Batch of 3 targets.
Target 1
Amino acid sequence: MELQRPQADADRTSSGGFSALSYDAAAGSGRARLQLLSDLPAGRLHSVEISGGALPTPADWASAQSLPLATGRVLDGEAMVLADGQLWLASEGRRSAERRAQLLRLDARNGTVLQEVELPHDWQAGPGQGLPSNGGPESLSRLSPPGKPLTLLMAAEHPLLQDPADRVRLLRWWWPRGRDQRRDAPQAAEQGSLRLPPGLDWGLTDLLVLPQGNREQRQEAPLVLALLRQFLPPQRWNNRLALYALPAPGQVSDPLQDWDLQAIGLTPENWEGLSRGPGVDAQHIGLLLVSDDNLNPLQSSRLALLALPTTALCQHR
């Protein structure tokens, strides 16, 4: 199921440039809340309550609202995690002091920046090292299960300049015992790398950590889904969804399984955001995707609901 997003919210704020989304089925009274992160022309969080069905209806979109983020500063938010009234953002960099790649903590109520967390040295711009310009971080996902202390998983979009061209690095953000996750800065630890598909210009645009089930009891690595894209000039997009086991530090994980999204009917677009979505049935996991139109008239903001067969996961559990 796929639909095109309106170009404005109910408050007449123009919208587009969506790079991440979050779906909360516990909004109350049988309603769900969909939140979309936009980085163009400035950072905004767009919220819409879904009254029925799997995707928003025109009536739902008519009540959508938007919240400015980090007013007065340049923000290139590419991924987000909402937790305990706070909004964690992965902000992409341009290899300059003015546009540094960072992890940001914001107040989810008013959009103000509460904390800026610098990335590890290897990820920072330097001679022959660091994230490439406009190369991430592109993904941020909650790694810890609900009810447990918050742990975040971050991924670069493209290989670091000092790394092989077929892999992207992961970072785990965590709080040591005794540190307050609502106030203190988290610590970063390398979490291995994911192997990219063969071919030029593939990048990782979002990650989703899947429920662990009995993998945690067996002390097996969690499974993660990666949304991958490839841009081929002048205006062609290829999109894939790949399943990986979370690598250990220093290790590289190869895809356990992957899906060509155009082969299953998805419109070729700049698909950037991935989230758990509404339930489909007992045999499938609902996934929501959002595309980034870059405010380009040749692109569009689209939402898609995919049904991932649980049998695809069971064989790796």
Target 2
Amino acid sequence: MPAPEVDWVRWDDLPPILNSAAILDKAFKRAAKAHGRGRTRAERAKSGSVARVHSLGDTISSTLERYVKAFPSIGRLPPFYRDLMHILVNVETVRHDLGTVDWCRKKVLAFSKAYSREIGRSSDAGLVEVRRKEAYGRISSLVHQVAESLERLEAARKRLSSVPLIDLEAPTVVVAGMANVGKSQFVAAVSTAKPKVAQYPFTTKEISLGHTERGHLRIQVIDTPGLLDRPAERRNPIEQQAASALKNLAKLVIFLYDPTETCGFTMPEQIHLFERLREEFPDVRFVEVENKVDLKNSGSGRMKVSALTGKGVDKVLDHMAALLTNRAPGASPPQRAD
């Protein structure tokens, strides 16, 4: 049975969606530049009206068609992007709004063709002008009817454009843990990512992406929002992004601890979250790493780093690369580093 086709999308390539007034303004400006042809003044006036109505309808319908086609088919997205779309936007509303905009596109095109034909057949100069204005009014009314759908789609586009382009086939390391344990600082230390780092919890609101090279291996490193120790059904949208990355992207998970407990969570709480995640994602390989070794060395058998000073970072990178190429002892998932 053939594998289902999937859409590969660059979210930041989604075109900005103009509001109804801006679409009409663009279309009327183009229509005003359309000119007619003919031997007499009356012929030129009539063909000019046909050209302007046709231009108005064509500009609006092609603009709306571009918006509709730019959004990917949700059912054809890879699982990670499909999950993320459900987390970030109301998918049913997006579907409804795309359908509404496409309905408008078809009606505008039908009106412009019908009025163009009627104007072209008319021999009354006064009636030509009446029909042109009528076409303008009815087409404008249609576009204004979908104003709210256009605004919602633009809001969805802005939200989705924050999603990084992830290579779903690349060796991928996801960094997870509770809030404020230093995940973003760790990702910045081991990769090209420049996530926001601050000394308060829940700084990371969405995933961010970086890369690092170890020998000939290029590793994709993903920073995720902090997780709380609670069941999957109680996670908020920010936590759901992290869980989706673990489920759909991770070839390896670095679970980061803060043994100083300055993150606001005790070590038993952090360990309990680790055990919950390992149980929830049994096919994912986990490596436990304690951060902030410059402040406290717990003496445990876990790997230790200081994302702030860089101590231990190279050792963790070497271990990551070895596990991803299955060269480390005990590399079968799930594998604890202690």
Target 3
Amino acid sequence: MLQLLAQIKYFQAVVRCGNFTEAAEECYISQSAVSQGIQALERGLGVKLLLREHRGFKLTPAGEHFYKKSLSLTGDFEKLCRETVRLARADEPRLAIGYLRCYGGHEFHEAVAEFAAKYPQVEIQIVNGSHEDLYDGLRTGGVDLVLNDQRRAFSDEYVNFILASCECFVEVPSRGFLAGLASVGLEELRNYACILVASEKQRRGEQDYYQNTLGFAGEFLFADSLEEARLLVTGGKGFLPIEGGDCPPQYAASIRRIPLCRSGRQIARRYCAFWKKDNVNPLIAEFADMLKSRFVK
């Protein structure tokens, strides 16, 4: 059964990649092993799935049908395996935690380190994402607790554990006009690109929040990670709104962090730990308390 599944995955990889070389790299096996696996699959089915040509291949009608149907088959099998493992580990202590991809503070990392040292037997799963990614994780049960900013009224479905009100900054290139300012207002930033950390599906929502709620008026650029965003800043592509902590040492020479103000006062955002009230995992409150202690230091 597993051998047949591997052959199907080799076939899918070849179709998806468009050639045997890239498929072999994706599957971490040799090109000849991919070819032999697909030939064995064809022999078992008694039909041709691919017609080999001098510099490639084309799918037969049977191959097109098999490819489309096999995607849901392998997807269902992988889901079954995950659910089986999760069921077998139901009694094992675990904690799934999410945090904002764009958060630049050190508090979350310190809390994770403290928790791991105190509970080495607990499996810790960590994910990051945008504001909406994290709420989706809570709603679907993918995570137990998230560190998130407050963008909406508190819901009675969740424990809304306030951590801190964090002052907002922007990171700018150390060489340039903005770096010479003691603080900067939204009006002074309108001619510079605002760099946001967001997945492709969340970009519109993030831009809407920064543009229509916070009042950023210029162009928007997007990065998939905080590291990528900071590289854009050092390259002079724009500024990065950020909260909490100091600028990482590796960027000290190329980035300056300055307060972001509105009407002469530094803008602040509230950060909270959220989890569903019906989640009975006793480790959640323990981690939340550790996180809170890091914010109040």
